[in-house]
Records
---
Amino acid sequence: MADILQTLILGLALGGVFALMGSGLSLVFGVMRIVNLAHPVMIIAGAYVAYWGFKLYGIDPLVMLPVAIVILAVIGILLYKLVFEREARSAKYSEMTVLLTFAVAMIVEGALGGLFTNTQRVTSPAYATDAIFIGDVFIPTGQLYAGILSLVIIAGLALFLKYSRFGYAIRATTQNREAAELLGVNVSMVALVSFAIGIGLAGAAGSLVSFVFSFFPAKHWEWIAVLMSLVVLGGMGSLLGTVVASFLLSVIAAFVGTYIGATWSTMTFFLALFLILLVRPQGLFGEKPELA
Amino acid sequence: MSELLHVSNVTAGYGDGPAILDGAELTVEPGKVHCIIGPNGAGKSTLLKAICGMLKVRKGDVLYRGESLKGLRPDQVLRKGICFVPQERALFPKMTVRENMRMGGFSLPDTSNLEKRIDEIEERFPILKERRDQHAGTMSGGQQQTLAMARTMILKPDIVMLDEPSLGLAPKIVQEMFDIMRMMAAEGITILLVEQNALMGLKNSDWGVVLDLGKTLFSGPAKDVLQDPRIQDLYLGGSKAA
Ligand SMILES: Nc1ncnc2c1ncn2[C@@H]1O[C@H](COP(=O)(O)OP(=O)(O)O)[C@@H](O)[C@H]1O
Ligand SMILES: [Mg+2]
């Protein structure tokens, strides 16, 4: 019994972090119809920001988090201006961006490897190796902080989308781009800002991930499939769906890890991605794909 | 004769594709209901898209109050007072009815009166008030069309262009949509209606325009167009129809 509860808690704690990792990807897909394969490598870049802040200056990764958001958001703006702005007007846009984002992922990985080597890193503030005990079960403090903070950031994003004027513009563009434009929304501006927010969220996720998992530049390949399974199960572009899917898959992966074997834990995500695409390609909260 | 909008000899098409409109002519008078009819594929929707700035006008001109609309983006045309309700109704399916209404006021420079304005419109369309917190995508076709039309009134537009408001609706609901349109016209909104259902469209309009193969063939008072033998044969299914 204690085992089951323990596994559940570990799954839930990571679920929050996965949700934040996936939310930027989901937002960018919703607005721009880009499957940003470079999203996970941006998370790695965010992790390096937190890592070096701690290593060089002893700054807590939670304090580095807003710094990582800003740095990555600026990178997002540059990337959008350099790579995606022209593409956004092209009809073959979706197919093109798969290749483009793949190329960006490779380039950023190469740059990070060149700068910081391929050594495994992990940020190690005191709480990262601490744990809170409640009776028989324990919660790693680092995972707890990361999970809670992830949910706080996602809640902030949800409130922004729901109530702010710009949030209305983002949702409108996601749901019906042409209609948004007809009603006076500047959809290119919405795309730019959403992309910046999405990459900024990768920076936030990276700071938290930096003390939860060990990382190195090429680690993002593993995360692509994990994040894809989250946003596909959630329904591409649905933030709520991404969050629900993250908790669901993270808990399942925790149980698989405990009862079947740690190596099978990651397989959960790959298998889930495969099954979802076969059985319910629109995911939990997505629209049925149009066949027209 | 005073004219609000004048489309003269317009050529337009999609992307680098062939000209879909070639020789489209249209005169819109203030306060009236104008109905463009023509067979499927005639270019009716294309004409509305060219007016509202979604498509580039390649040749000819679109004059609004004597000023050219050529080269303006859809949001700029909107801000001049011309609203377009496309065939697909331009709703946000996962926003609530109320949120859809707010989006209707997105282009307003000052939104301090927006909520009050939406309240006023909800009073006149009880179904929208009743469904205000429901996702627009879960409503019936008639309710969605009602929302799309009512939403334009937030901006107090001069002209509302409606592309096939009757599309996919049961006959009884179709008449309701035309009643809403007439009510908008009674408030001084000039209507530019596109209808595949020529008989219904013309019966609810003041002025009729016949478009085929991207060219204006004929226009006149709606009841004259209804009676015209050429139109009777072509689009109204023979002389029995009227
Ligand atoms: N998005 C588009 N891209 C290319 N061609 C189009 C597009 N939409 C319509 N057309 C073509 O333009 C012509 C006129 O279409 P449309 O204006 O929709 O006709 P109507 O509204 O009168 O039925 C048709 O031949 C159609 O195939
Ligand atoms: Mg049409």
---
Amino acid sequence: MTARRTWATARRVLAQLRNDPRTIALILVLPTALMTLLAWILPDSEWQKYAPPLLGIFPMLVMFLVTSVATLRERTSGTLERLLSMPMGKGDFVFGYAIAFGVLAIVQALVVAGVCFALLDLTVRGSAPLVVLIAVVDGLVGTALGLFVSAFAQTEFQAVQFMPVALLPQFLLCGLILPTEELPTVLGWISWLLPLTYAVNAMQHVVVDTQLDTRFWVDAGVITGMAVALLALGAVTLRRQTR
Amino acid sequence: MTTAAISVRDLTIVRGPVTAVDHLSLEVPSGQVIGLLGPSGSGKSSLMRAIVGVQVMESGSIDVLGQPAGSPTLRAQVGYVTQDPSVYSDLSVLANLRYFARILGVTDDSVERVLDQVDLREVADRLVGRLSGGQRSRVSLGTALLGSPQLLVLDEPTVGLDPALRRDLWTLFHQLATAGTTVFVSSHVMEEASRCDRLLLLRDGRLLAEGTQSQLLERTGCQDIERAFLAIVEGGAS
Ligand SMILES: Nc1ncnc2c1ncn2[C@@H]1O[C@H](COP(=O)(O)OP(=O)(O)OP(=O)(O)O)[C@@H](O)[C@H]1O
Ligand SMILES: [Mg+2]
């Protein structure tokens, strides 16, 4: 792995995105539109309650899907096979993508949270910048998960199959539908293995607490650690040789 | 030259339910244009993937330029063109070549050279997705030429090209071979046999025959390589 190749890959992915307005719209417009819809549907008290966790969930879902699709295309077009026959580190590929989509995750978090605060009357007692920060990290986890899943997959077909498997259980167990403390014991344990749980938890802290305690920073640290671990695992799992 | 650029020993490749390459042994001499001919499904692509180190092998071994296939040092010395053009259709020709040049660690001078070699200068700024099939496969070929590799593994690089372009590319392959590069080209079009210094005929993952075109014609007493191929197949079956 070298900085030159990783950076070249990040720039290449960003250049591809510039030529692809639909994906950019998917990343920026879709979550914003969903939040707007929600603000419109829900009474204010409910909106104030559900908006923060969703600000953590949407970036992760969207970035996961976009990353999975991008890497899937890299597989089907044969460019991944070609790159791996070249002096390309597996880490160059994974971290190059992570940097490019990380940039997008930052823009996305700023846009979505900005709209929520400025136009949709979302108020938080804690820190608004930290809401943005957690949203960025959540987007990164989504990207990392997408890269891990597609590295893990042997074929493009498997990559598609893994997508719902990686997402849906997290959505059910993350604490949005039922607080994690109220889940059956075993499911409660499982929920603490899933990054989305920490994302939702951290968001709920930021909103309620004016004084952020160590529990917030533990949550934030755990999600960041999970993002890095997933990327490293993805780089290790990616197979140069396939059947 | 006596040293082989590629030597394959007792190679077996299993893909899904089929044995794509079946106890295959062969040698590819260096500094020549070697044709790998065989019908569709005979295992050409599988063999090439194994040579460049992206195919899981069931058994056997391959040495490429004196090292086991898939060795990290080989990755900079072997240029590989996949059967379907593997370039980014949402980037321009130039952006594609520049990116792969960065990966190979070569300067943009190589990009300029390649644009001329594959005759794409006029469309350099166009998105690859908006090019014709033949132009797209030349971008893919150009990518493999960037690093001035010692061995070129080209999987059906001339498919879908018009006769004039095909002729130009074969001329290029021979120029590269004269300069010392080993060019290993697959094709299922038997006419292309006449363009190669030496031929390897593959069928059902096994080596059917090898030699120069005239050797093969002489052996079978046939007029063209297509008939010679059929004669060998039928001779082998009886
Ligand atoms: N991804 C795959 N999964 C399962 N089987 C495969 C796969 N790719 C190829 N095969 C099988 O392996 C055998 C050899 O295929 P291969 O692609 O090597 O042939 P080929 O000589 O390159 O054919 P063509 O001239 O059509 O490109 C065929 O029977 C084919 O069906
Ligand atoms: Mg093939």
